[in-house]
Amino acid sequence: MNLDFKYYFSVFLRRSPYFVLVAALFASVGLTLAMILPPEFEGRATLLVESPQIPANLASSTVTTQAPEQLQIIQQRMMTRDNLLDIANQLKVYERSKKKGEGMSVADKIDDMRSRTQFTTTGGTSKVRGAPPNATVLSITFDADSPIVAAEVTNEFVTRVLQQNVQIRTEQAGDTLEFFKQEVARLGTELDSQSARLLEFQNQAGIAVPANLTFLQGQLTGLDNLITSRRQQIQSLQDQKQRITDLYNATGGVQTTGQQLTPLQQQLNTIEQQYNNAKLIYSDQNPKLLILESQYKQLQKQVADQMAANSGLPTGSGSAPISQQQAMYESQIAALDSQIAGLQQEIDNAKAKMDEVNADISKVAENGATLTKLQRDITAVQNQYNNAVSRLSAADTGERIELLAKGQRISVIEQATPPQDPIKPDRLMIAGAGIGGGFAAGLALVVLLELLNRSIRRPVELTNRLGITPIAVLPYIRTDRELFMRKMVYLGAVAVFVIGIPVSLYAVHTFVTPLDVLIEPALNKIGFSVTG
């Protein structure tokens, strides 16, 4: 298909007034916006999350929140309704604004503050596997139509971020310390209670516990051996008693030994021998014999009184004096009975003690189970208490680290300063977009008009449509008046677009509503920004 460029160029020239009008409309709007949109400045501050100042292997903080998570928490707190409104009121952001703030509601101010505030976090993780994490950097920006306001608001955000970071970390460390203080106090009370319960049970159980079982069994064996020994001794004494009785009944005397007689009896025995020997030598009236007889009778009476006292009879009761052999017999029998009674008492005591020991041994198993349970409970509580005390010490150290700002902290690398150049609008881009959009729209309008025009305007169209070949074609020739009126309308339209539209936009921007307030939300919705 051969294109007749000359024909289409003539069509463009014929439609050029429409092209010029549309291009002038867009260009005038773009140039006007580029000139009247107010400048907007960006305050920027940079903060760095620093690692703990004290090595973790020596002393660690109890706040384990990672830097990105901590910054997200702080950002959410910064962007709350109350915080944004407080900053706007404190710094009088909208009272100092040239255009914005006039007639804005509280909700609009908060939305506007959110749209102009931006937190950007970079770093924190490493893309290389196994490599240490990168430094975490937080950038805070705020846009305003005044460089001073932009810097002040940004620095206020920085101040509040630092305060929030310290507050969050100290509160977490303080809460951790308080928790372990309460835990130590609770476990201490429970440990005291368990100890008192164990002591009370031990007092009640006495010796009947597994630790004393060997001792009790040994004690039981000892008592049994004691009873056997005492029974053997009693049997021996009874045999001895029987022999003495048999001897006395048979001979009327007893076997005497120095070890079996009292001193008085031994003296009586000596005097008796001397007296018997003297009777063989001296006559009955011999003074020496009479003296020995008197001593013998006196000692005999003393021995009888002694024997009477040992046997429970009253002394000097006038009873017939007993012979020396009878006295010795009764004395030996009484001594043996006394020994037998003592040994029997020991046997009875040992049997009673054995009953007590057997009762204790029978309680050992039950007491052992209860004691084991109590000891297990107190050991568990003791372990928990020791762990709580250890963690309390770590929590106290962690709190001191946070109070002294020796843990993870946020430091300011660069404070916000009033910017020298605005970040928007990009006036060249807006003007260029207006002019370029006008050219494109004008050309599109010319093409559209030509496509909608279905009339026959060229000889070739007569041939193609009607199948005839014209000899000549005469164009439509306008009169001078028609040409003049056409020019007036064209110039008027151009004047309206070039002068009227800019003036109207300026009036709306100045006296009604700033144009940036009107067009910025729409541009943001479609993803277009006038930012440079």
Q: What does this entry look like structurally?
A:
The chain has 532 residues and is mostly helical. The chain has three domains: 15-37 and 424-525, no CATH class; 41-184 and 407-414, Bacterial polysaccharide co-polymerase-like, CATH 3.30.1890; 212-376, no CATH class. Helices cover 69% and strands 6% of the residues. It has 13 helices and four strands. The chain has helices spanning 5-36, 67-78, 81-91, 106-116, 147-205, 213-251, 263-281, 287-311, 324-403, 427-452, 459-466, 480-512, 515-525; strands spanning 41-50, 117-122, 136-144, 409-414. The chain has a four-stranded antiparallel sheet. Helix 1 (5-36) runs parallel beside helix 12, helix 2 crosses helix 5 (147-205) and helix 7 packs antiparallel against helix 8 (287-311). The longest helix is centred in the last third of the chain and has 80 residues, at 324-403. The protein starts with a helix and ends in a 7-residue tail after the last helix. Residues 526-532 have low confidence and may be disordered.
Helical run tally: 13
Kindly estimate the percentage of residues that lie in beta strands according to DSSP.
5-15%
Order of helices and strands: HEHHHEEHHHHHEHHHH
Would you tell me the overall average pLDDT? 78
Shape estimate: rod-shaped
Oligomer: single chain
Could you estimate the helical fraction of the residues in percent? 55-70%
Structural class: mainly alpha
Main β-sheet description: 4 strands, antiparallel
Q: What's the number of structural domains?
A: 3
Strand order of the largest sheet: 2-3-1-4
Low-confidence stretches: 526-532
Number of strands: 4
- Measured between the Cα atoms of the first and last residue, the distance is 45 Å
Computed Rg: 64 Å
